[in-house]
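User: Can you predict the 3D structure of Type II methyltransferase? Sequence below.
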Amino acid sequence: METTHRVFVGDSRDLAAVGDDTVELVVTSPPYPMIEMWDDLFTELDPAIGDALESGAGRRAFEAMHAQLDRVWDEVERVLVDGGIACINVGDATRSVDGSFRVFSNHARVLEAFESRGFDPLPDVLWRKPTNSAAKFMGSGTLPPNAYVTLEHEYVLLFRNGGESRSFEPGADRRYEAAYFWEERNNWFSDVWTDVKGELQHLEQPDNTERSGQDTDLRDRSAAYPFEIPYRLITMYSAYGDTVLDPFWGTGTTTLAAMCAGRHSIGQELETGFRDVFDERVERVPSLSRSVGQARLERHREFVEQRRAEGKEPSYDAVHYDTSVVTKMERELLFREVVETEPIDDGYRAIHEPLFDEGR
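Assistant: Sure. Here are the predicted structure tokens for Type II methyltransferase:
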């Protein structure tokens, strides 16, 4: 199996390189309005935003920033197939503007934007961000009543384009081979993820490598999220052969996840330097994709053993692996590993082979 991963440099408010109704899944993390690190970017897009911030008009700046994101959501609506899913990772912002501290609810504004474009909101996910600060309060410290809750979570907002779910031909291999394990389904489809820095985060992965000062600087200006988030979302909401779009490509984490998950991908990014940084990351995809698949299989076998110890014998045997599974839908599950990557004119090509047990 071969997948292609195209990366375009340009403004995400115009995804001209992406055709109408050509993408099955969108997974992205945009710049968060009213987070200070993004003020300059939004002001470059609309100088009136800088004027609003300077004059202390926080609500006006907030709305003007989202007006720029709205143009990206227009493009998402255009390129996403009917029944396709959009996954938007976004956090709210807290900020003092004109001497008044408040929260700016980015997730609510994005929800409103997608609903107004005819998307059906689906139950969303909360995940807890890592924090290095021991302080869990803002404002008046340990004295009531003027302290503030610390934001330590972000949202993955989920939307379906139109009222109908996608359909597949009966018994489609690319869907059944892309299944997830029963216990993964129970964990992943929970509305609170407390394990996104769990086992997959400790695997060998390019996210943990910094090769230069430029690399560090670019990461500081990216909206990067943990590898586990796009990998999980891609596995949950797409099948083999689908195309995943990230209009805020950044350091390319969504593309890495798509490669490891055996999906095609498209990314668009305003900052040209990110493409150079990604060239090194992609070299490590074969080892990353193999370790991700092996880790999922090992965790499943541990689950099966625990289930048997509780007197619950799984009902079916997997076709491709020496393990049992709980449901019939899991029997055909087949992981794909990347065995080779190569650059092409507008991105990368990845060659995949089935990931089998050692010795099979």
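Confidence is low (pLDDT under 50) at residues 198-216, 218-222. The chain has eleven helices and 16 strands.
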